[in-house]
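Per reviewer request, we include the raw input and output of the structure prediction for the construct analysed in the revised manuscript.
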Amino acid sequence: MASLLLSPLKLVFSLTLGLVVLLLCVWIIDWLFVFKFWPQGIERLRELLAHDLARGITLCAKQGGSASAITAPANALYAIVFEATGIHGMGTQFADRSALSIPDTIVRRGYVSHGEEIETAMIGTQLLGVRVAILARFAPLLLLLYAVGAADGLTQRAIRRACGGRESASLYHRAKYLQLAVLGLGGLALLMWPAAVHWQLCVPLGALVMGGWASVQWAYYKKHM
């Protein structure tokens, strides 16, 4: 009973921890490219955010949605990370050249000295929110192709059982884990990729691969249903 009551808290904790780790990875990648690899520096990251935002709004418009479906998740993530923690407010306060108290002056010096790193993290957070929103727009396609693959696999399984064909638990589990790898690693790669993402090419291709593995998975499902 206790584990049942605590399961929502465990889920919230796991999701929060996963988001924190994902944000840290995104920030590290952005810092590396902004300060080490991109000659344009932070301007390249701003261009990347503008590009993905425009692509997301265009995609959303084609699906009959509004631009807020893309901007709202990015703004919400930014608000959680920077506004709720007071970092955004500090930047607004320190931009004002009026006199500050001694502790605030010390904090402002540290903030200004790491201003570009903080701004990079802010833009990277918004970019992550935009990409999460774009990826969510492809969820129906992923579910559809998975359902088609599963239906095809179950049909093949029924034919195989009727004809006395073999079943394979190892193929079933391998296909299942490969689907998780395509979905998990592919999704993370799209979210953290430090360049423009070709969403109409990458996501449908990944969905086709996942649907193919779903067909293999259910075709070799061994237990009786």
